[in-house]
């Protein structure tokens, strides 16, 4: 988390300094950029996914070792009015999480590495302020669904065979904020966003007393995205 926030801050400051967006009397770039009914672009970024567990009994938490993943995707934006835009951001998100389970002496049983490749489909409402020179802050939020290509949901093997299973489809709500910078030839927007799953993603083991999944009521993804969009 600290690495992501530090990277976001550094790039934000660098872009701000290099392009002098906050001059008192800037040259106005892309004056008609926000007047078009439809805008297109793409995004690149980073993610850090985590899990939120709900347990049946207080037997100790499942440990989650998070790593830095990446995002890439497209942007379609429909202008509703001066302050509101409807955005569709289909993208590919790759991440890895390592789970540590208590009570095992053998690392092969205690650790499960989960690599996830999500195809994400968010529908978001972007609420902006009035443009100030060559920059404009905004907040963004909405709902999304994703398909996890690495879920193993239909596998007949489970943790007894070292296979950790998750549901393929997940539903989220998302919220965040960012700033549009109007450069000479394109609009650049760094943003930070939180994502929170609303459905249980765990596929329990066949054994109801499984030492891996028996004590888990629900397992839901939560994460943070830092995206850089180009329109």
- DSSP strand tally: 10
| General shape | elongated
Number of domains: 1
Please write the string of helix (H) and strand (E) elements. HEEEEEHEEEEE
Would you tell me the structural class of the helices and strands? mainly beta
Integer-rounded radius of gyration: 21 Å
CATH architectural designation? Beta Barrel
- Under CATH at level 1, the class stands as Mainly Beta
Low-confidence stretches: 17-21
How many helices? The count is 2
Mean pLDDT: 89
Helix content percent band: under 10%
CATH topology: Porin
| Beta-strand content estimate | over 45%
The N- and C-terminal alpha carbons lie at a distance of: 27 Å
Biggest sheet descriptor: 10 strands, antiparallel
Describe this structure in words.
It is a single chain. By secondary structure, the chain is mainly β. It has a single domain, classed as Porin (Beta Barrel), CATH 2.40.160. 10% of the residues lie in helices and 52% in strands. The chain has two helices and ten strands. It has helices spanning 2-19, 107-110; strands at residues 38-55, 63-66, 69-79, 84-88, 91-100, 111-128, 135-148, 169-182, 187-197, 216-230. Strands 1, 2, 3, 4, 5, 6, 7, 8, 9 and 10 form a ten-stranded antiparallel beta sheet that branches. The protein is elongated.
